[in-house]
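Appendix B. Worked example

We walk through a single record from start to finish. Start with the input: the chain for SAM-dependent methyltransferase, Rhodococcus oxybenzonivorans, length 236.
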Amino acid sequence: MTIPSPNIWHWPDTYELENRAQDADGALFRHLRSTLDWEGKTVVDIGCGSGFHLPVFAEAASTVIGVEPHPPLLDLARQRVSGLSHVRILAGSAERIPLEDSSVDLVHARTAYFFGPGCGPGILEAMRVLRPGGVLAVIDLDATAEPYGAWMRADMPHYRPAAVEAFFAAQGFELTRVQTRWLFSDRESLRRVLGIEFTRSTAAKAYAQTPGLAVDVRYRVHIRRKPAGLEVPRTE
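Next comes the structure step. The output line below is what the pipeline stores for this chain.
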């Protein structure tokens, strides 16, 4: 079942500002490349949204595929990559990836598997489309790190970071925490982004606690590699 993403689905223009600010120093992509170099390979971005990360993968990959369930975002993603002949956008979801078995090398899912438990079907589907030796990379915000994690926990008191991390560990993922810096061009952009990520009171507190244009944000990067020779059975 596709869970709506209230920030990008409702405020794609503001989320574009957020994408531009995120990981200003490229730490996440450096870590991904150290895990799997996608030069000349096939990359799939699950829940690609408006396609912000697709051109980065397209710089080196032979084929890049964005998969997204929300029609307005599909249109935005297609516009973004219209000049890139080796990038295509497909309607689909984590649980139903419209690709053949063992056809891709990297499945990238950024802030798409946030709640952990319940994501089993999506993980199984990703393993189906991966070639032996391919990698599923799940990247999500680390709610244990300050200050961003404290704002998250204030708005989601029932969210249990330890339970989420235990779920991925039980599924055979390796965890690396990657520190990043979000850097905004101006205070108004910062205010708008905080406003779509948090409740009004938490957003106001976060804005007051951020005197400049940068916010330290840590991510969880969960990596699972498909063993050579492994065949994952289809599930209906």
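Two observations about the output. The mean pLDDT is 93. The radius of gyration is 17 Å.
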